[in-house]
Amino acid sequence: MTQKKLHPSVLKFKEFVKNNPHIIQEVRKGKATWQELYEDWYLLGEDDGRWETLGAETENESKKNSESKGDFMTNILEAIKKMDANQMQSHLNNLSQAVGAVQGLLAQFQGTAGGGTPVKPPEAPKNPFSFRQD
């Protein structure tokens, strides 16, 4: 199998990327392309400050994500601590009564069909088994 021999600068760039994995994350997130990064690396060199800021941005984003998750859980726990059990019971009772009223209203409308006459369910025979006596 024949392999293409890469230019020495490309090999150096690949080594640079291996030593700085945060650059790979930048490409995967779509913030930069390999071509852009290679050109910047070729023109600016490995010691440029840009390479340090790329890693810092990735770390800051991960810290923000973990902090926002922690803040959400903290807010939920604080809200639960501040709840008054009696007040919650009162709200649940009111909600239950409202649902019951809606169900009654729906049952009332379903019970009437057309001209306002209530629909009666078909009556079952009084004796489902008719035995004849001989």
Shape: elongated
Pick out the low-confidence regions.
none
Number of helices: 5
User: What fraction strand?
Assistant: under 5%
What structural class do you assign from the helix and strand content?
mainly alpha
Number of domains: 1
SSE ordering: HHHHHEE
Protein name: YlbD family protein
Organism: Neobacillus paridis
InterPro entries: YlbD_coat
Pfam family, one: YlbD_coat
Condensed summary:
The protein has 134 residues and is mainly α.
Layout of helices and strands:
Elements lengths: L7 H12 L2 H7 L5 H11 L5 H33 L2 H27 E2 L3 E2 L16
Antiparallel strand pairs: 1-2
Word description of this protein:
- The protein has 134 residues and is mostly helical.
- It has one domain (8-105).
- The protein contains five helices and two strands, in the order αααααββ.
- The protein has helices at residues 8-19, 22-28, 34-44, 50-82, 85-111; strands at 112-113, 117-118.
- The protein has a two-stranded antiparallel sheet with strand order 1-2.
- α2 packs across α4.
- The mean pLDDT is 78.
- It comes from Neobacillus paridis.
- This is YlbD family protein.
- Residues 110-134 are annotated as: Disordered.
